[in-house]
UniProtKB/TrEMBL annotation:
Its cofactor is [4Fe-4S] cluster. The keyword S-adenosyl-L-methionine applies. It comes from the Bacteria. SUPFAM superfamilies: Radical SAM enzymes. This is Radical SAM protein. Residues 104-337 form the Radical SAM core domain. InterPro entries: Aldolase_TIM, Methyltransferase_A, rRNA_lsu_MTrfase_RlmN/Cfr, rSAM, rSAM_sf. Keywords: 4Fe-4S, Cytoplasm, Iron, Iron-sulfur, Metal-binding, Methyltransferase, S-adenosyl-L-methionine, Transferase. Pfam families: Radical_SAM. It comes from Tenggerimyces flavus.
Length: 368
């Protein structure tokens, strides 16, 4: 199969544009990192308030880019005991959300979004029910991290919110910015990219950012059934994604994660667990694959027949995997009203103020 990968180069990031402007103004090379440090430290994104910078530089930035460094602003927040959801909007009204989880150990993990809605139509997903509105820019992806870092430390980042990260070509320059020592300076080992199996993007990710963690959604070991849950299976089969990961773990020895969403009466039988264990054990390096089992949560706008399995059913599924020597754990979830998959806050927003139908569309496979 010949696939054209991301044919259009993504536009420059804000960081590249500012670097170019500062260079044209004859500013010293350190000015950009000085600006980024000031934004992170002061908690403001208004250029006028960044007093660490010379006034002439602030004026030039405002003239070239407008008054603020960030393209997103927070418009709603829901806080629970351990989870905080934030809804963001840009100047065009596009809305996306983040979920910040605080673990009892003190670790904080930010789940961010890469698309407004999503066009891949997974039948268990609130975001898939919205449809794709558009890809986020690299700057909009990074702005989510910036906002939360201005509030406090963020220890790890997961590209697991709204959208299929690897179908958005802007994910890659966003990873460059997040790991750049002069900008966010995040270790790639503290970043996880989750995918339902967008194979061209997965190949690009393991080639360009081999130290970034990967989570591949499996959700069924049986191709026909998997395609009813994840329609992308028909275009990029699970087997092709696993072949990419086999090569990746052989080259890097990095542990790779397989997510398995457990839906009552759909994919939670002993036969599913046994087939999943066989799939893992048939890898070249099965000990480098770890299965994260995630019991389904009722979500807005999703197939009503899907239900959360009982705790006993989840335990039995895990037991079957482990008895076949598969490394498997239940992904930690948080209780209460915010115990929901990414995408719910936004879906609730859309249910009261829906996006124009004309803006919703299916994702072209060669995203660009
Ligand atoms: S699970 Fe991910 S890829 Fe599938 S519809 Fe939802 S956001 Fe899109």
């Amino acid at each position: 199969m010949c696939i054209q990968l991301f044919p259009n180069p993504p536009p420059r990031t804000r960081y590249a544009a500012i670097a170019e402007l500062l260079s044209s103004l004859g500013e010293p090379a350190y000015r950009l990192s000085q600006l980024v440090r000031a934004v992170h430290r002061t908690g403001t994104t208004e250029y006028a308030q960044l007093s660490a910078l010379p006034r002439r530089v602030r004026s030039s930035l405002i003239e070239a880019f407008g008054p603020t460094f960030a393209d997103l602003r927070p418009i709603a927040r829901q806080s629970g005991d351990q989870v905080e959801k934030t809804l963001f909007e840009n100047d065009n009204g596009a809305r996306i959300e983040t979920v910040l989880a605080r673990y009892r150990t003190g670790w904080t993990s930010l789940c961010l979004s890469t698309q407004v809605g999503c066009g891949l139509g997974c039948t268990f997903c609130a975001t898939g029910a919205v449809g794709l509105v558009r890809n986020l820019s690299a700057d909009e992806i990074c702005d989510q991290v910036l906002y939360h870092q201005q509030q406090g430390p963020v220890d790890s980042i997961a590209f697991m919110g709204m959208g299929e990260a690897l179908a958005n070509p802007h994910t890659f320059p966003a990873l460059d910015v997040l790991t750049h020592p002069d900008y966010f300076g995040l270790s790639p080992r503290r970043i996880t990219v989750s995918t339902v199996g967008f194979a061209p993007g997965l190949q690009r990710l393991v080639d360009s950012h081999p130290q970034v963690n990967v989570t591949l959604s499996v959700h069924s070991p049986f191709p026909a059934e998997r395609s009813t849950l994840i329609p992308l299976e028909g275009r990029f089969p699970l087997a092709s994604c696993l072949a990419i990961l086999d090569q990746h773990v052989a080259e890097t020895r990095r542990k790779t994660y397989l997510a398995y969403l457990l839906i009552d009466g759909v994919n939670d039988s002993p036969a599913h667990a046994t087939a999943l264990a066989s799939l893992v054990n048939s890898r070249d390096q099965p000990r480098l694959f770890h299965v994260s089992v995630i019991p389904y949560n009722d979500a807005v706008g999703v197939t009503p027949a899907y239900r959360r399995p009982s705790a006993a059913r989840v335990a039995e599924f895990l037991r079957t995997l482990r008895s076949a020597n598969v490394r498997a754990t239940q992904r930690q979830q948080f209780g209460g009203a915010l115990d929901a998959a990414c995408g719910q806050l936004h879906a609730q927003y859309l249910s009261s103020a829906p996006a124009p139908a004309a803006d919703r569309r299916r994702l072209p496979i060669t995203a660009g």
